[in-house]
Amino acid sequence: MMPDRRAALQQTSVPTFAQMLEKVRYEGAYPTRERAEEAVRLVVAGLGRQLTGDERVELAACLPHEAARILAEQIPDTEPLTGWAFVKDLAARTGASLATTRWDTGSVLTTVAALAGPELLTRVLRRLPSGYALLFGRAELPQPVKEAA
C-alpha cells in the first residue's frame, strides 16, 4: 500500500504549470510570464532530448502536466551532450546568445531540481554526461576513478 500512498502524495504536491512559470519568472528575473514560458519550453524540451530511462519517467511525474508532456514528447538524442554542449545546442536552436541561454537553462533547471527533490536529482545527474550539475544548481562532484582489475 505504501507505493500507492507515495504516488498520491506526490501527485498532490505537483504545482500547476502557472505556478512553475511564476517560480521560473521569479528565479530568472524575467519581465513577463511569457518570457519565462519560452525558457521553460526550450529547456524542458532540451532535457527531454537528453534524459532516458526510469529517471525520465520519474522526473516527468514530478512536473506539472504541461511540462511533463514537453519532456516526454522529445525523442532522446543518440549522442548525449555535455552540459556546455547542451547550452550551446539550445542557443543554436533559438539564435540567442550563450549567456542568455545559460541564464535560461539555470533558471529553469533549478526549478526542475526543486520539483524533483535531491534523491531523484542525484540519479538524473548520474544518467547525464558531465556538466549538468551546475545547470541544476549543484556543485559538480568528481567521479571516483575506477581502478583496473
Automatic annotation (TrEMBL):
UniProt-listed Gene3D superfamilies: Uncharacterized conserved protein DUF2267 (1.10.490.110)
InterPro entries in the record: DUF2267, DUF2267_sf
Pfam families: DUF2267 (PF10025)
Name of the protein: DUF2267 domain-containing protein
Native organism: Streptomyces caeruleatus
Source lineage: Bacteria, Bacillati, Actinomycetota, Actinomycetes, Kitasatosporales
